[in-house]
């Protein structure tokens, strides 16, 4: 009964009884304020939140993101990519230095290569201090790990042979396998780069030696002709006209002339073919691979008939070149020198960083 009396004494501010008492002049009325007006808003907000609960992240996605972040940190710490890039820059600079200082390279090709070579050398110099640390760090880390493993081999053997520690056994095997693969990968990169560098150096050296032999052979032929002309002109038994006709049809060193012309011709065609192969299998930026910058794009028909005949057709070659005259030999050697210089220039550009397309950098 006490609770019922308390409930009956409660007067709300919005009730009809409260208004009637106020109109009657009663002032001291205990009033309970109503909070029902604000409750629906909170209920609506709670219902809206309950209707659209926040999406919980997937556990698989969270673990994948965590693994990616850990992998990035380890990659940055180890800097294996930086080590490989610097190795390539080091060997590329050796190749570029060898080609740029070659005597077989024309002056125009040297000027064309200067800007590309400078940027590649600058990249190598910028990464050199970091690479020196990495070159010391990787071997020391590998040998130290193997040394510690051998030093504590009894303890490691007990742990590995214990069937209750499968996880540790798997981690040790994985770590040893990782070190072996890492060592083999670095060794393979170094041997591959050294082999490429030695092959290109040998190619440049052979081109220089072959062109030097061509020049010596041509000088020998010219000296022999000069001596022949001198003896012919001072001879009192032969006129100048008859001496010239005899000189034309009785050239000295015919086999040497033929060998120089045919060899220079075949080498020129080989350099031309090699340049076209490089253009197809190793494309560079559009600025470098313009068709107007290569002699290899010029059709052979524009060079004349001497380059269109087969090497076995010696009689026709002899007729076209006036029995392999000095003029024909000089012209063929000039074409060979221009084509081999173009091949060396294009080969050097394959090792320049700023000449590579974006998908091949790094």
TrEMBL record:
<dbReference type="GO" id="GO:0098609">
    <property type="term" value="P:cell-cell adhesion"/>
</dbReference>
<dbReference type="GO" id="GO:0017022">
    <property type="term" value="F:myosin binding"/>
</dbReference>
<dbReference type="GO" id="GO:0005912">
    <property type="term" value="C:adherens junction"/>
</dbReference>
<dbReference type="InterPro" id="IPR026858">
    <property type="entry name" value="Vezatin"/>
</dbReference>
<protein>
    <recommendedName>
        <fullName>Vezatin</fullName>
    </recommendedName>
</protein>
<feature type="transmembrane region" description="Helical">
    <location>
        <begin position="137"/>
        <end position="160"/>
    </location>
</feature>
<feature type="domain" description="Myosin-binding">
    <location>
        <begin position="195"/>
        <end position="349"/>
    </location>
</feature>
<dbReference type="Pfam" id="PF12632">
    <property type="entry name" value="Vezatin"/>
</dbReference>
<dbReference type="InterPro" id="IPR026859">
    <property type="entry name" value="Myosin-bd"/>
</dbReference>
<dbReference type="GO" id="GO:0005886">
    <property type="term" value="C:plasma membrane"/>
</dbReference>
<keyword id="KW-0812">Transmembrane</keyword>
<keyword id="KW-0175">Coiled coil</keyword>
<keyword id="KW-0472">Membrane</keyword>
<comment type="similarity">
    <text>Belongs to the vezatin family.</text>
</comment>
<keyword id="KW-1133">Transmembrane helix</keyword>
<keyword id="KW-0539">Nucleus</keyword>
<feature type="transmembrane region" description="Helical">
    <location>
        <begin position="172"/>
        <end position="191"/>
    </location>
</feature>
<dbReference type="GO" id="GO:0005634">
    <property type="term" value="C:nucleus"/>
</dbReference>
<keyword id="KW-0965">Cell junction</keyword>
<keyword id="KW-1003">Cell membrane</keyword>
């Amino acid at each position: 009964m006490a609770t019922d009396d308390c409930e009956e004494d409660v007067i709300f501010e919005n009730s009809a009884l409260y208004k009637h008492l106020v109109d009657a002049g009663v002032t001291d009325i205990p009033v309970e304020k109503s909070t029902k007006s604000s409750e629906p808003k909170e209920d609506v907000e709670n219902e809206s939140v309950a209707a659209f609960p926040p999406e919980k992240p997937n556990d698989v996605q969270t673990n994948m993101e965590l693994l990616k972040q850990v992998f990035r940190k380890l990659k940055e710490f180890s800097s294996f990519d930086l080590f490989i890039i610097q190795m390539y820059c080091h060997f590329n600079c050796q190749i570029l230095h060898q080609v740029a200082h070659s005597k077989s390279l024309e002056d125009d090709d040297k000027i064309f290569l200067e800007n590309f070579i400078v940027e590649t050398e600058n990249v190598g110099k910028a990464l050199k201090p970091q690479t020196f640390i990495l070159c010391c760090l990787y071997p020391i880390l590998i040998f130290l790990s193997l040394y510690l493993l051998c030093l504590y081999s009894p303890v490691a053997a007990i742990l590995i042979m214990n069937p209750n520690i499968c996880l540790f056994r798997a981690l040790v095997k994985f770590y040893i396998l990782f070190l072996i693969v890492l060592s083999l990968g670095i060794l393979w990169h170094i041997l591959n780069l050294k082999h490429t560098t030695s092959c290109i150096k040998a190619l440049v050296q052979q081109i220089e030696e072959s062109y030097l032999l061509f020049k010596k052979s041509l000088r020998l032929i010219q000296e022999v002709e000069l001596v022949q002309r001198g003896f012919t002109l001072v001879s009192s038994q032969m006129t100048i006209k008859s001496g010239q006709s005899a000189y034309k049809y009785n050239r000295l060193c015919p086999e040497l002339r033929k060998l120089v012309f045919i060899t220079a011709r075949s080498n020129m065609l080989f350099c031309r073919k090699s340049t076209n192969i490089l253009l197809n299998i190793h494309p560079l930026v559009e600025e470098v691979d313009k068709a107007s910058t290569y002699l290899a794009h010029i059709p052979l028909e524009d060079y004349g008939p001497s380059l269109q005949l087969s090497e076995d057709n010696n009689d026709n070659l002899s007729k076209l070149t006036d029995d392999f005259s000095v003029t024909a030999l000089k012209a063929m050697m000039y074409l060979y020198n221009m084509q081999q210089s173009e091949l060396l220039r294009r080969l050097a550009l394959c090792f320049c960083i700023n000449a590579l397309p974006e998908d091949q950098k790094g």
